[in-house]
What does this fold into?
Amino acid sequence: MQIKFSDKINNIIKNLALEAERFGVKIYFVGGLIRDVLMGINPCDIDILVEGNAIEFVKSLNFAQIKSQHPDFGTIKAQIDDIDIDFASTRTEKYPHSGTLPVMVKLGCAIKDDLIRRDFTVNAVAARILPSLEYEIIDLFNGISDIGQGILKVLHKNSYIDDPTRILRGLDFKLRFNFNFSGQDEKLIEQYLKNPGREYLSTDRVILTLKKLFGSKENANRAFVEFIEKKYYRILFDDFYRNARDINEAIEIFKPQSIGETYVKYIFEQKKEPPALNSPLEIYKHFKNMPDVDICVYYALTHDKNALLYQNTLKNIKLEIKGCDLLNLGFCQGKLIGEILDKTLEAKLAQNSPITNFQDEINYVKKTFIP
Ligand code: ATP
It folds into this structure.
């Protein structure tokens, strides 16, 4: 197999392969990188799996600058020639309960035992890196054929029970790469969703996976529709009454920065009642410090027109005068300054206000507050 890296990266990889031979370990590309290469997508991140202890291996290199390490997981991040590389040790894991975070059983295990713990056959193909920059493929579960056919298959029948976030990861791959769950996987998912084990569920892990699933603007919309239609919400709740159209419309209007976070908030947010806001100033103050994600979710839940008024008009209105301009007009330092600024803003926010620029604001202050 050929992998198209730049000459600089090829050089680094070659040196790593030579060092691995010297150190007595085998190193591999595995998972997403190999899947992407086999689908003709250029890899962007470089993750290397060490069959052995990655931390000891990286520490033995005199050309790697260590950035961070997690001895409990056997992972280490290093910079080599300005390129960030994540190294992981092979490991076996077990799931003491459904949905819980896995517990590491053995660090530095044989590659085949590491591959078995992975989510889908398409992500369980490894390629040993040789100093000649040839890659020796290890495809124990026919992942290459499944990549070719675009089929998502877990590696054992308890896989979704062990880790239901794999259902959401699968949906992500389905939408990104046009893959499909195998018939057997559809059945396993259906069975899991009928009787999901939530007692030990790592909600944090689910949230992280959801953020990633909904994080890509092109697919978020469809992902949320499937999340509801296929009842994937049952990983978290028995019932779910949220509407995909409401949040998708709100996202179009409010264009929040983080789409993934917006969907996740919408999924978990309690029902909201709009407060009584009686003036443009009250509306302005209510929304001013709310993060864009929160305003978007608030609107999806309430359809409160005040949020629209804020977004379309009030948000863009800013006072141009500052406290120091009032001091220059002869006002004394103190509470009054804040009150005058507030009143001027209120006048500027009013519908059809004649105050539009710095001079209008100064004139308003003079006329209203200087006898
Ligand atoms: P991409 O980064 O393009 O979304 P990826 O497959 O590289 O795809 P990562 O989340 O970076 O995604 O995971 C790296 C690899 O780790 C996967 O390819 C898979 O082999 C394994 N993996 C990740 N999450 C799980 C999981 N929940 N269960 C089992 N294996 C997993």
